[in-house]
């Protein structure tokens, strides 16, 4: 049905073109200098097309892509801020040589929120950059899982455990790994 | 399909702990022994699913997940575990994937 409508419109335009051509031929309001060649006409049409195509079609498309990319990059910045917040809590516990139950809960709930942010980022990458973001979506999940395992897979939740230098050092390694991965994602999104 | 159910926040705790009982209260091992394994066996017996609601807690440490679901997988097999478990996690959508990963590749600590 859709194709039939398209075909009818194209046919009507073609017929209209032929009729207009015949009229112009019979009533020569538009005359053409005999020195004007086919190349000049082609050049004129090309200039006209470029002048219309770039602002009307291409610019909005590029603007939309830039807007989407900036939005995704802001989301990643949010994830980076969340990570920094977790690191601050861990570092403070180490500096104060005191780890309360509430601190551990705060760390866990922040990691849960970070997980939510990554899940949301993965979801948002899909509609705009489905194909180019396949690897990024998978690696984001893997890095997020590894960070969670490295941070909470050991002694952290043990009742008597206090955050110490050794824990901080291991956390720093895990933090730098996911932090640099997220920053790499920003560069990759800019190249989509 | 007949099913058993565990709502972790109300049936166990809203603050899941570490891996083993000796590590403190509400550990993964305690969860496994008190709730997960008995309900899993019931679900298996009736050929149904064990539905587990993971929401409304302070979050899960990897050690807790490994000490409970990893242990279940090590003792009863990954295939059976995946067949009879069904999860809900609106608070942390990636958690279900993480648990499934743990079931498929249980931590070595669980298998010893």
Quick description:
Chain A is mostly helical and 192 residues long. Chain A contains five helices and no strands. Chain A is 82% helix and 0% strand.
Relative helix content of chain B: 40-55%
Major sheet details of chain B: 3 strands, parallel
SS strand fraction of chain A: under 5%
* Strand percent estimate of chain B: 5-15%
Number of strands of chain B: 3
Mean pLDDT of chain B: 93
Helix and strand run of chain B: EHHEHHEHH
Overall average residue pLDDT of chain A: 89
Low-confidence stretches of chain A: none
Unreliable spans of chain B: none
Order of helices and strands of chain A: HHHHH
- Indicate the overall shape of chain B: globular
> Alpha-carbon distance between the termini of chain A?
36 Å
Largest sheet of chain A: none
* Helix count from the secondary structure assignment of chain A: 5
Q: Roughly how much helix do the residues of chain A carry, as a percent range?
A: over 70%
Distance between the termini of chain B: 34 Å
Structural class of chain B: alpha/beta
Looking at how many chains there are and whether they match, the oligomeric state comes to heterodimer
Number of helical elements of chain B: 6
Q: Which characteristics define this entry?
A:
heterodimer; A: mainly alpha; 5 helices; B: 112 residues; alpha/beta; 54% helix
Overall description:
- The complex is a heterodimer of chains A (192) and B (112).
- Chain A is mostly helical and 192 residues long.
- Chain A has 5 helices and no strands.
- The two termini of chain A are 36 Å apart.
- The mean pLDDT of chain A is 89.
- Chain B has helices at 8-12, 28-45, 62-76, 78-84, 94-104, 108-111; strands spanning 3-7, 49-53, 85-88.
- In chain B, helix 2 (28-45) runs parallel beside helix 3 (62-76) and helix 3 (62-76) packs across helix 5 (94-104).
- The radius of gyration of chain B is 13 Å and the shape is globular.
- Chain A binds chain B through residues 105, 108-109, 111-112, 115-116, 118-119, 141, 144-145, 148-149, 151-160, and chain B through 15, 17-19, 23-25, 58-64, 66, 91-95, 97-98, 101, 107.
């Amino acid at each position: 049905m859709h194709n039939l409508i398209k075909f009818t419109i194209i046919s009507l335009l073609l017929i209209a073109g032929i009729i207009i051509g015949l009229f112009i031929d019979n009533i020569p309001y538009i005359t053409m200098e005999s020195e004007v060649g086919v190349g000049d006409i082609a050049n004129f049409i090309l200039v006209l097309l470029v002048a219309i195509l770039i602002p009307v079609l291409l610019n909005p498309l590029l603007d939309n892509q830039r807007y989407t990319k900036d939005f995704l990059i802001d989301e990643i910045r949010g994830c980076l801020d969340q990570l920094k917040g977790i690191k601050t809590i861990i570092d403070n516990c180490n500096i104060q040589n005191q780890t309360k139950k509430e601190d551990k809960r705060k760390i866990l709930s922040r990691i849960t929120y970070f997980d939510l942010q990554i899940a949301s980022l993965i979801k948002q990458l899909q509609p705009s950059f489905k194909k180019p973001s396949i690897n990024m979506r998978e690696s984001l999940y893997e890095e997020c899982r590894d960070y969670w395992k490295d941070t909470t897979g050991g002694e952290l939740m043990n009742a008597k455990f206090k955050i110490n230098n050794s824990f901080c050092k291991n956390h720093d390694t895990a933090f730098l790994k996911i932090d640099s991965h997220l920053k790499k994602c920003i560069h990759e999104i800019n190249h989509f | 399909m007949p099913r058993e159910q565990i709502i972790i926040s109300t049936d166990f705790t809203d603050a899941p702990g570490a891996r083993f009982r000796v590590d403190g209260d509400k550990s993964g091992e305690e969860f496994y022994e008190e709730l997960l394994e008995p309900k899993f066996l019931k679900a298996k017996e009736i050929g149904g699913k064990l539905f587990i609601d993971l929401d409304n807690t302070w979050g899960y440490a990897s050690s807790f997940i490994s000490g409970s679901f990893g242990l279940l997988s090590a003792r009863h097999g990954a295939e059976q575990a995946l067949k009879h478990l069904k999860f809900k996690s609106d608070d942390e959508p990636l958690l279900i994937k993480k648990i499934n990963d743990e079931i498929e590749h249980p931590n070595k600590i669980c298998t010893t």
